[in-house]
Amino acid sequence: MPNIQDMARIIRQDIITMLAAAKSGHPGGSLSAADIIAVLYFSEMRVDPQNPNWPERDRFVLSKGHAAPVLYAALAEKGFFPKEELLKLRKTGHFLQGHPDMNKVPGVDMSTGSLGHGISVAAGMALAAKIDNKDYRVYCLLGDGEAEEGIVWEAAMAAAHYKLDNLLVILDHNGLQIDGPVKDVMNLEPLPDKWRAFGWNVLEVDGHNIEELTASLQVAKNFVGKPTIIIAKTVKGKGVSFMENQVGWHGNAPSAEQAEAALAELKGGNRNG
Amino acid sequence: MAELLVDWKKEKKIATREAYGQALVQLGKDNPDIVVLDADLAKSTKTSDFAKAFPQRFFDMGIAEQNMIGFAAGLATTGKIPFASSFAIFATGRAFEQIRNSVAYPRLNVKIAATHAGISVGEDGGSHQAIEDLALMRSLPNMTVLVPADATETKKAILAAAAYQGPVYIRMGRLAVPVLFTDDYNFVIGKANVIREGQDAAIIANGLMVAEALQAAEELSAQGINTTVVNCASLKPLDRDTILKVARQTGAVVTAEEHNIIGGLGSAVAEVLSEHYPVPLYRVGIKDTFGESGSPEELLQKYGLTSAHIIQAVKSVLARKNEKSDIN
User: How many structural domains is chain A composed of?
Assistant: First the structure.
């Protein structure tokens, strides 16, 4: 099996390929989360592609549901469904919906897409594990723009109140949202202080550094009594030079030529790319 | 015909929310998967009964209805059967989009049990009187919508909702209302019950308007007008067959609901009749206006939700029915 870095690069290629085929979708926030998702699905989470509804599995909720391509890529690479299905993303009658659908896609634990819901639902899953004394963990990927939604903070309050230390949220802090930089649209800083004030264990990492991500997940696992949030500093569009830090690549698919250029970069071994 | 108490007017009145509290405790004993969430209104919604009996399975989410629905959805993904309660206005209005996208869309097994629906909330006034909750819930695919008429039916509806796999909205009231049905009353999701028969007109009602409909039928019968009364507690799925049957039998229909005439029972019945068997129809309900503070009884009077208003409505549809037969 490829190492995590290589898997992240493969996932990025899948993202570009499927979005070019779909001709619509969200590359920026999918690429920014590729390393995080690679770590979760290929070293961290207890899941079984042969048994997607295994009751003891770890759960994953993609709260920033528009990044569906990064999740679909990981699920396909993990073996939940054949990789060629990725090319039918967003097509009429096909199971890969524009935003994740738990009833259609094997391995998707919650239907998401409406921002803010996912973290609340993930906390509910974590509460269920507490009620039943089960040891599965619940992972949730949150966007930074998404944290402008009020329900995110309602969920943050409740997860701390019910001491859901089996809940792990990773914030994909790429700093951009549709209308511009998050700090200009609706400033969220100081994010770490806000989460600490809400009663969370807060870790800050480079969201493209596999070792840092892996180590922080280990710390979070051993932390008792509070939910953990890993604030992962990321670059929107990471890995494709002409997409990096460009707001315009939030919700536009690459053309065939752009996809070719992007894939050449991603395959080319440019580790800074 | 459904099992109606002979002396229902002499029975002690009970609010449907009281019956909800009792039904939850019974459910909690029978099924360890039942969990209950509230948003700081447990004493009013009566989920406090469950909280007392099963503190480990009761979760107060604070004044945060959106997150309450999100948590309920998460719990449901693991096989729990969550009942999430608040006042109807907040349960359906504040958390509408959570219900839409995180409960109804993924068809999760969440029960939204709301109390304090309608203008019979009374003194708290228009801000707290949900008159649109049924329209909101009825328009959602995958959602089942129940509006029980009395304490007996409420208990049965709650048990039926728990046994049913999928999202359910149950609408209950604050006000003590007559107990109409015996314990043998047969409640089935998707079934309307004919509780009185007459050939002149049919009154289709739900919630607290069922008692008003029965009262109206009694008074009309003294005037020589015989009406069928249908309790349509299952607003969705709607029992089309029964509605069409009574429309064919009587040729004139009145609906009665404690809800805006837009989007609730009246609309649902109108949709069925206009497509399949148009007959003169009058919708008794709140006439597209918000409520206000006042005693429940005075408000029901002021907003046209009494047996007297139903009687007037029956006479009006009868006049149209007779006009029609004159033309024919």
Answer: 1
CATH number of the domain bearing residue B281: 3.40.50.920
Per-residue pLDDT of chain A (273 residues; tens, 9 = 90+): 679 999 999 999 999 999 999 999 999 999 999 999 999 999 999 999 999 999 999 999 999 999 999 999 999 999 999 999 999 999 999 999 999 999 999 999 999 999 999 999 999 999 999 999 999 999 999 999 999 999 999 999 999 999 999 999 999 999 999 999 999 999 999 999 999 999 999 999 999 999 999 999 999 999 999 999 999 999 999 999 999 999 999 999 999 999 999 999 999 854 443
The Cα A205–Cα A211 span in angstroms is 10
- Does the predicted interface ipTM exceed a cut of 0.90? yes
**Beta-carbon separation of B66 and A150 below 8 A:** yes
Q: Say how far apart CA B124 and CA B114 lie, in whole Å.
A: 16
What pLDDT does A124 receive?
98
Measured between alpha carbons, how far is B314 from B322 in angstroms, rounded to an integer? 12
At B113 the three-state DSSP class reads strand
Radius of gyration from C-alpha coordinates of chain B: 19
Separation of alpha carbons A199 and B34, rounded Å? 28
Q: Is residue B188 part of a domain?
A: no
Query: Would you please indicate which residues of B are annotated as catalytic (active-site) residues?
Result: 65
Q: Are residues B233 and B317 in the same domain?
A: yes
Residue A91 and residue A251: Cα distance in Å, rounded?
A: 17
Question: B318 and B210 in one domain?
Answer: yes
Q: Which run of H or E residues covers position A261?
A: helix A256-267
Residues of chain A neighbouring B101 (CB-CB closer than 8 A): 111, 113-114, 117
CATH code of the domain containing A229: 3.40.50.970
Strands annotated E in B197-252: 201-205, 227-231, 234-236
Report the alpha-carbon distance of residue B88 to residue B126 in Å, rounded: 13
B59 chain-A contacts, CB cut-off 8 A: 127, 162
In a shared domain, residues B33 and B173? yes
Quote the minimal CA–CA distance from B165 to chain A in Å. 15
Q: Do B67 and A158 touch (CB under 8 A)?
A: yes
Using a CB-CB cut-off of 8 Å, the residues of chain B touching A102 are: 77, 106
Domain containing residue B281: 193-327
Q: CA-to-CA distance for B133 and B140, rounded, in angstroms? A: 11
For residue A138, give the 3-state DSSP assignment.
Answer: strand
Q: Which one, of A186, A224, A272, A239, lies nearest residue A30 by Cα?
A: A239
CATH number (domain holding residue B127)? 3.40.50.970
How many Å separate Cα B213 from the centre of its chain?
14
The pLDDT of residue A128 is 98
**Residue to substitute from B58, B77, B97, B107, interface A, most A β-carbons within 10 A:** B77
Q: Is the peptide bond before B106 cis (omega within 30 degrees of 0)?
A: no
Residues of B in contact with A122 (CB under 8 A): 74
- Among the partner residues B64, B77, B107, nearest to A109 by beta-carbon distance: B77
Extract long-range pairs of A183-188: CB within 8 Å, 24+ residues apart: A185/A145, A185/A148, A186/A145, A186/A148, A188/A144, A188/A147, A188/A148
**B219 in the Ramachandran plot: left (φ > 0), alpha (ψ -120 to 50) or beta?**
alpha
Q: Which amino acid is at A141?
A: L
Predicted local confidence at residue A273, as pLDDT: 39
